[in-house]
């Protein structure tokens, strides 16, 4: 169920139409609905801006090499070109995760958690701002976690199951597990059964009650997991027990669609404990900042600066 109600947003709806119209199954009824949606000037303007931005990201067609001519360019032109490239890069940095989610088969919005039952009987719960692709057609069932976090209750039907996370593969031998993607690493928590993480030529077997973190180059040693803490997000809470403050801030900021920017990196290593409400991330952040004597500043709604 959604954690909060969002007001109609032309930019958000434009992104959803952009993704839908490019799907192979888009039919004439959906195209007519899109035409009706574009009757409102603000909707048409939002979609036109998105199309312009998308065209700018496409590679230019190959052209014959022209004769080299020496042209004197003004410093003003160079600065304008540089500013344009910086703006384009910033827009791609901010909106690429959202476009990546909308292009995925299953996804949730910021602040939303959703449970889905797959065709084979497997149930998955997606956390806020998460995305997955699913392929159950072959002898090995394949899941691909693109963003965020997922809790899986696997239905054993005689076929193998693998979860792809970045360059790593997780072979599932149990029934309940949790997989998460973080900015610096990925994480597997096994609640019941077993699972094996395979990364290149390295692998780790993880049993019930254990967790392991990994990235594109290595798999860390297996550790004991605090299952109550790891699984509390499904009930709308972040239960931290001696957790790095940076992780708590990052989690709460992410639940309101913001990226964390710490002005003092030493703050990230402080240890905190507490029960934080994920359905009210702003109030939880303010309470935590007051307890830790920190100042919070939201920048353009996309960044949360902590001083």
Task: Provide a quick synopsis of the model.
The chain has helices at residues 10-21, 28-37, 41-57, 75-102, 227-231, 245-254, 281-292; strands at residues 106-107, 114-117, 123-126, 131-135, 140-147, 149-153, 160-165, 168-172, 176-181, 186-192, 194-199, 202-207, 210-214, 223-224, 237-244, 259-262, 271-277, 296-299, 303-306.
Describe what you observe in this structure.
The protein has 307 residues and is an alpha+beta fold. Among the domains are: 107-229, Jelly Rolls (Sandwich); 236-306, Phage tail protein beta-alpha-beta fold (3-Layer(bab) Sandwich). Helices cover 31% and strands 32% of the residues. It contains seven helices and 19 strands. It has helices spanning 10-21, 28-37, 41-57, 75-102, 227-231, 245-254, 281-292, and strands at residues 106-107, 114-117, 123-126, 131-135, 140-147, 149-153, 160-165, 168-172, 176-181, 186-192, 194-199, 202-207, 210-214, 223-224, 237-244, 259-262, 271-277, 296-299, 303-306. The strands form four sheets. It has a seven-stranded mixed β-sheet with strand order 1-4-5-7-8-11-12, with helices on one face. The protein is globular, with a radius of gyration of 22 Å. The two termini are 34 Å apart.
List keywords for this structure.
single chain; 307 residues; alpha+beta; Jelly Rolls; Phage tail protein beta-alpha-beta fold; seven-stranded mixed β-sheet; seven-stranded antiparallel β-sheet; globular
């Amino acid at each position: 169920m959604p954690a909060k109600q969002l007001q109609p947003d032309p930019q958000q709806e434009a992104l959803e139409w952009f993704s839908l119209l490019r799907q192979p199954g888009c039919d004439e009824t959906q195209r007519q609905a899109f035409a009706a949606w574009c009757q409102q000037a603000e909707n048409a303007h939002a979609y036109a801006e998105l199309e312009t931005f998308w065209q700018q990201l496409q590679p230019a067609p190959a052209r014959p090499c022209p004769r080299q001519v020496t042209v004197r360019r003004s410093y003003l032109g160079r600065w304008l070109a540089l500013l344009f490239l910086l703006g384009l890069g910033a827009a791609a940095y901010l909106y690429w995760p959202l476009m990546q989610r909308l292009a995925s088969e299953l996804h949730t919005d910021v602040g939303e958690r959703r449970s889905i039952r797959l065709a084979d009987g497997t149930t998955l719960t997606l956390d806020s701002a998460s995305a997955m692709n699913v392929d159950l057609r072959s002898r090995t069932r394949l899941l691909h976690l693109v963003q965020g976090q997922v809790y899986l209750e696997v239905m054993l039907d005689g076929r193998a199951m693998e979860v792809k996370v970045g360059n790593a593969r997780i072979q599932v031998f149990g029934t309940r597990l949790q997989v998460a993607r973080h900015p610096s690493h990925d994480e597997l928590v096994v609640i019941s059964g077993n699972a094996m993480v395979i990364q290149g030529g390295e692998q780790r077997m993880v049993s019930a009650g254990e967790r392991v973190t990994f990235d594109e180059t290595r798999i860390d040693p297996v550790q004991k997991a605090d299952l109550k803490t790891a699984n509390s997000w499904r009930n709308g809470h972040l239960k931290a027990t001696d957790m790095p403050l940076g992780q708590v801030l990052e989690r709460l900021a992410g639940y309101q669609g913001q990226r964390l920017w710490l002005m003092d990196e030493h703050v990230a290593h402080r240890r905190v404990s507490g029960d934080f409400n994920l359905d009210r991330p702003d109030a939880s952040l303010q309470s935590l900042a007051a307890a830790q004597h920190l100042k919070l500043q939201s920048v353009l709604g996309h960044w949360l600066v902590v001083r």
